[in-house]
Amino acid sequence: MKNSVSDNPAVNIKDLKLAFHGYNSIDIPSLEIHSGEIILLFGENGSGKTTLFRLLSGLLRPDSGELQVLGHDLNRMSSRAKDYFRGDHIGYVFQNSNLMPYLTALENILLPCGFSSRKQKIVDSGEMTREYEAYQLMAKLKVEDPARLRHKTSQLSKGLRQRIAVARALIGNPSLILADEPASAMGSYSQRLVYELMINHARETNATLICISHNKEMDPLFDRRLNMKDINISAETNPLW
């Protein structure tokens, strides 16, 4: 089943630039990703993949250029407004999972519902409780023992923490899912399971998914592949890399 891909862009970038230490980290003349697309983003280390994600989520502000995400001009939004926007509309799987170690796995998964009234309403509008929704997501990731979700994340393996981060990003049906190497600590079977879950979830909810990955075996699952060296001029010219 394919997404209903819209002509409306989920991401629209023009002349976007961001420099670190005097050198451009991001220099993207143009990039458009349509709503509902399932995108694989790849490139060499240092080519700007994670930096681009941080720009798309509003965690970084560009030096110049146009940056529109889900129809919102991030350059015109305050930091507080971007925090609310990210909480309501974006699901982010960080490269290092970025879980709260003092919270249980279940509490980590449910965090977005506490920060976003939109996601809270979406989850609460269903027939299941928030906790059951979290259990269902983890069951799809082959973590079927509810007791494991009562452990603090600091006590869990890296692979399990990555699964928790994926479930946290998907709960509440975000409009844009950004997944940065979401299954790097897993074996091939588990990696495919994670990618298929994210892609199926995005298709079912008409979300846009952009996934950073170096796993070529996953290529056929995506609608389109984007190489950073083709979109980011700095990926070829930055002397720091």
Automatic annotation (TrEMBL):
Residues 11-240 form the ABC transporter domain. Pfam families: ABC_tran. One of its GO terms (molecular function) is ATP binding. SMART domains: AAA (SM00382). It comes from the Bacteria. Keywords: ATP-binding, Nucleotide-binding, Transport. Coiled coil: none annotated. PANTHER family: ATP-BINDING COMPONENT OF ABC TRANSPORTER-RELATED (PTHR24220:SF611), IMPORT ATP-BINDING PROTEIN (PTHR24220). This is ABC transport system ATP-binding protein. It comes from Endozoicomonas lisbonensis. The lineage of its organism: Bacteria, Pseudomonadati, Pseudomonadota, Gammaproteobacteria, Oceanospirillales.
